[in-house]
Amino acid sequence: MRRFEKKVAIVTGAGNGIGLAIAHAFAAEGAHVVVADINEASGARAAAEIEAAGGRAISVPTDVADEDRVRAMVETTLAQLGRIDILVNNAGVVVHKLLIDLDRSEWDRQLAVQLTGPFLTSKHVARHMIARGGGGKIVNISSVSAVMGRVKGGAHCASKAGLTLLTKVLAMELAPYRINVNAVAPGLIDVPAQRDEQNLSEAYKTRYLQEVPLGRMGQPSDIAHMVLFLASDDADWITGQLYLVDGGLMAGHYSFQGVHDFTMLHGH
Ligand SMILES: NC(=O)c1ccc[n+]([C@@H]2O[C@H](COP(=O)([O-])OP(=O)(O)OC[C@H]3O[C@@H](n4cnc5c(N)ncnc54)[C@H](O)[C@@H]3O)[C@@H](O)[C@H]2O)c1
Fold this sequence. Notes:
The protein is α/β, with parallel strands linked by helices.
């Protein structure tokens, strides 16, 4: 079943990682995908990869934190493809530092890309959707860091927590125009950028996975499946929600169970 035939989907930060998987998944189901990444080389490579796989994609480089460039990206998309049906706000930057060591500029950039960015792209895409007569889907890529503090992730957590309420307010304001706005919060996902992180040593990974009921890291496709559902007609009556896709991480902490429960879990 190809759910997105004749639809145009913008995916920000689709040059790599989770966004790239989301872009591939939309293209495989018939959408014409706009790869909107700040890294021109990554964006062009992603669009070429999608076309080589039989899909349709264009690269329109943008910086989601820069309103003029966002406006230009939306205008280029409309000039080339004529419409926008779906927006996925996925672009992200992470700096791992304690708040007492975090520079003001590093704080500002994370907030600008991960919170101001989704505001700017949603604003300009929604204006087009409304002018066209309404209808559309916006999906924001959040994180479990929206609901759980993470040491050395202060700006990241704050931006993702802010994104939750941005999602809810956008959902309320855009509902009259049949534009649904939801967020997906991934747990730890196996992408090249994560593998490069200093803190993703084997020891860290083993300890982390002890807290994941389903016992493995997520794959980018695990996130793409939820994003495509929320962008599909099947999700027409869902808006303003945050969906955790985390292997069960946020269900509870194994390390905080009573001894009795823990031993039961391991069958002793
Ligand atoms: N990987 C994980 O474990 C994980 C977990 C939870 C949430 N997330 C979220 O998923 C999203 C994607 O993360 P990822 O791991 O795939 O990262 P990634 O670094 O692999 O990809 C991010 C992409 O965003 C692009 N980008 C950065 N700044 C941009 C800007 N200003 N404008 C446009 N594009 C920009 C980068 O060039 C890159 O291609 C992020 O929002 C991240 O917070 C990731």
